[in-house]
Write a structure and sequence with these properties.
Helix content: 25-40%
Number of domains: 1
Shape: globular
Strand order of the largest sheet: 1-2-4-3-5-6-7-8
Mean pLDDT: 91
CATH class: Alpha Beta
Amino acid sequence: MTAPEQLHVEANGMAFAALAWGDPDAPLALLVHGYPDTAWTWRHLGPHLAERGWRAVAPFTRGYGPSDLAPDDSYLATDLARDVLGLHRALGGDERAVLIGHDWGAVATYAVTAVEPGRFRRYVTIAVPPTAAVLKPFTRLRTLGIGARQLRLSWYFLYNQLPGSERGLDAVIGKHWRDWSPGYDATEDVAHVLAALDTPARRTAALGYYRQNLKGGAVEGFRTRPGAPVLYLHGEDDGCVRADVAAAAALPAGSRFELVRGAGHFLQLEQPERVVELVEEWLAETE
């Protein structure tokens, strides 16, 4: 694995720590992680993109150390989108830049396409469909069973609302990785997550993504529609978001959906070669 540079970037009124690979003057590829994860989730894709002429930069998102806690204690999807847009500017991104997001990073990517679809040339989302896809199984009688099974997998949304659930994260984070990517050895990844959430305030911040977006941001999230074509990748064995829920998601015209076999929720780590192949194909295409 190619060792990354360690960056500190000022953007959107905050200081972000980031990992980076490649020539600083090359076109920007911004890589955004989710939960429970860190910028280290891009340790395979980042070097591959750098070898192919990109400046790959993976920030630790707001609240995850060593980046700043949100100064206004806000962790809505719209905040993440503003962070991404600010990082694009701070890192010298231009019209060639691309945005790749996993999990909450995918949510941020959809939000960016909704407000500034032309800011990045290409978009890739991984493991999480547009928010409205979660409701789609409940719109038809024959798909109610799919919705019910997805609700059982989404128990952690309610758990994360509980006062004091921060104290259980040592156990819960490991369980998520085991359940969401069965058979994958996440020892290294869990260690990175626990290091990034090493204070009570940081753990509260990570759960704030769920608490605030389920409450104040829920209506906005369900109304948000992606405004640009995306390559959407999903693991066939994902234990967080069912593959049949993902496959039924409505994506903008010109988008592409790919189900990655032999992978769960963290497919960029489980099947890095296949993910690299699909991403390269998408970035090479002209719109």
